[in-house]
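Run log, item B.
One chain of 278 residues. Sequence copied directly from the ordering sheet:
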Amino acid sequence: MAVTFHESTVAAEAYAAGVLRQRLLTVERVPHTKVFLDRLAMAPDSAVGLNLPRTSLGWFQMLEGAAELHLGGETQPLTPAHIVFLPPGLEGELVSATGAVVLYAEVPDAVRFDPALAQQPPALRIVDWTREPVLDSEHDARKRIYMVTPKLFGTKALKGEMILYPPGTEGANHHHEGAEHFMYVLQGYGTAYANESPIPVRKGDLIYYGDRERHYLRSEGREEMRFVEFFVPGMYTTTWAEGAPVCTWLPTGRSITGEQPVREIGKHSSAAATPQDV
């Protein structure tokens, strides 16, 4: 059964000096969740320690403001264009001089989804999603940007992407098998469907779908609806409802800013396994 709630309904707790945490995905809210998700609000001149167990994977996406990642004596500036992959055992610090909002996720015991992690753990990776290639839907005006993939991050334990729905667009009814799936709405509003039941959603909503739960979304209003979605593990199968068009994604040769992207991705269907160039 889908779980949907707005971030404003989740109490904030003190996490570090000047940092508030909202625990969005927990075992209390979703008993069998394979991923934990937090929203961190960092006041100016605050810091968050990043200390991952050696069996866990993590990633975070900058939502607002600016911060710096301090790691091994090096500093990396971060903006809302960045998503950061954190490998097992990473120790570092996220520091914000001006304030920031961060969506932070962690997959405990990630080796159960990708046994290769034990022998070949991936490295830290920082991705500027505004420079990644945009793909257009073959059937409508929706757009897709891959953000967390086996090629980018070196693991099959998770996958993530950003989907853009212009006003009035709608996805096709489908379900996934072999992975749990959550969405976080970044912009706009619309209706999510879970086993054909409508659920109003808007910016700040989290939508969690269990394995094999049918779902799709429709954008409403005058503003583009934008959301990120993540799958754990990152390898799964997708089945389309009877009569629903299978999503096929076409390369545009550009990034979201209209510039040449940092890499290219070919045409592919969402009904097939993740292609090698993704």
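Observations after the first pass:
- The helical segments are 150-153.
- The mean pLDDT is 94.
Flagged for discussion on Thursday.
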